[in-house]
Amino acid sequence: MQTRLQSAIDQSSIPARLDASDRAHAARFDAIDRQGAAMRASLESGEELSALRFESLRVAIDALRRDQAETVSRIEAAAERVSDALAGVSAASSEGATAGALLSRVDTLLQRLSLPLGNEVMLQTPDGFLLVPAEDRTLLAAVWESGGRLEPGTIKVMKALLREGDYVVDVGAHIGLTVLPAARKVGPHGRVLAIEPGSRVASLLRQSIALNFLGDRVVVEQCAAGDQPGTARLHLSDILGESSLLSLPTTREAEDVEVKTVDALVAPQQPVRLVKIDAEGFEPHVWRGMRRVVDENPELLLLVEFGPIHLQRAGVSVEAWLSGFNAAGFTPHEIDEMSGEIRPLRPAAALGSVASLNLLMLRRPLEMYPELLLE
After folding, report:
1. pLDDT along the chain (375 residues), means of 10
2. pTM for this model (two decimals)
3. CA dihedral 33, 39, 43, 49 (to 10 degrees)
């Protein structure tokens, strides 16, 4: 089957279209590089983009979109011909399903878009444009490969649960992979409080919010969330998303960051629909600093990253980590990152062997959330 599929693709115009697309984008990038060079100093210094430069960037993005749309349209037509050729193999067979999956994969790959901007790369995602630090090649490759959805199951669950006008707290907002979809879902009358301690990442996040015209609904707080106010040492990892207030075995750099509690950042009596916590092992501290928010919001939903390696560094057992949430009436559920399916949490004894899990924590039985019956 693979030989026949490859032969069909080779005989189609897809390879030529891909080459043409690459050449067109390369030519467009050369034209835009002059604008990118002019903007680079502003981006690197954290200076606000001027209206003129911002408009130039917007026009460049629109031009790329038009070029890409035409190229993709032609490639889609070629892919359709390949699909028709493969239909005779066996539409109902697993081979036919494999062919369909591969064609879908090709389609996803063709629709990606990136724009180098000095020390950053701007990537197009399903929810808007994201600035990714060029020096974090692991992150850049992962975001590119996933089409801007590193945790598609979690995002699917989050978007199913959020409603127009909701208030969301994103602890460990990073470059905005969960901020953008949340902001799109809550709409102009909703709010997302994005908490990110790293200066480099927080700066990129602010710029991404501006690029997507979401400043009316997203507030970025450059600080760490903890159980009491103060300062702390943020240990920087080569993979910026793994930077932590806990010591890292391979870290070479660190920066001092301000620490605030979620309770201090969220106004009293503010209804909060969802809190996402990704604090690289610092989750218990974040949790202790948001007890008022928890008490004031009986319908609160939690999305929490569970990472056994982080807990080992923090000297916290799996049972102790879970007990803090259980004591407040939350029941943890696992999220399948491929499908968004919600599953019962595996036994604590088996959790120590997982690399990482995103958990959905609910105060009510799962069946009382019909929106989670995802298609």
Report:
1. 38 47 54 53 50 52 52 51 50 52 53 79 92 90 85 95 98 96 97 96 96 96 96 83 74 88 98 95 92 98 90 84 94 94 91 88 95 73
2. 0.72
3. -140
